[in-house]
Amino acid sequence: MEFTIVRPFNWIGPRMDFIPGIDGPSEGVPRVLACFSNNLLRGEPLKLVDGGQSQRTFVYIKDAIEAVLLMIENPARANGHIFNVGNPNNEVTVRQLAEIMIQVYSKVSGEQLPETRTIDVSSKEFYGEGYDDSDKRIPDMTIINKQLGWNPKTSLWDLLESTLTYQHRTYAEAVKKVIAKPVAS
């Protein structure tokens, strides 16, 4: 059987997820980057689930697309393999991600940093009963390096700057309007 499997590890970029109540449902929890972006747009502290100690990596969508195109363009080298597509060079704890995002957002928006930048919440409080997650998700890049010679290029700072610039330009005014709406009694 011929196959090629792609295992994405946190592909990030503009238009990657929804902002609750703006272009997605008001309820529900988007991925960590969109959650933090939503908090930044609203001037709210970023919520760190269980202290933000989980480790993650993030890869820029353009880098990830390059990897997938290499698979398509080189079927003889891609067939029969499972490829992790991520960026182990962009490994951070969720707490570190929050701190970097606050700095990047302040730069791209020109807005002051909030006084209380982060708050710790329990996974039960944030997600509800029964939540479980791995503490560390870091891709092994051995197979994709060997078979396709691919390595991601974009630093965490650069991918966050691109993504947060887009989100600020796209959503800041809409979020301000939602925040300013009087609540019906």
From TrEMBL:
Pfam families reported in the protein's UniProt record: Epimerase
Record domain NAD-dependent epimerase/dehydratase: where: 1-86
Domain of life: Eukaryota
Alphabetized Gene3D superfamilies for the sequence: NAD(P)-binding Rossmann-like Domain (3.40.50.720)
Record protein name field: NAD-dependent epimerase/dehydratase domain-containing protein
The organism of origin for this protein: Flemingia macrophylla
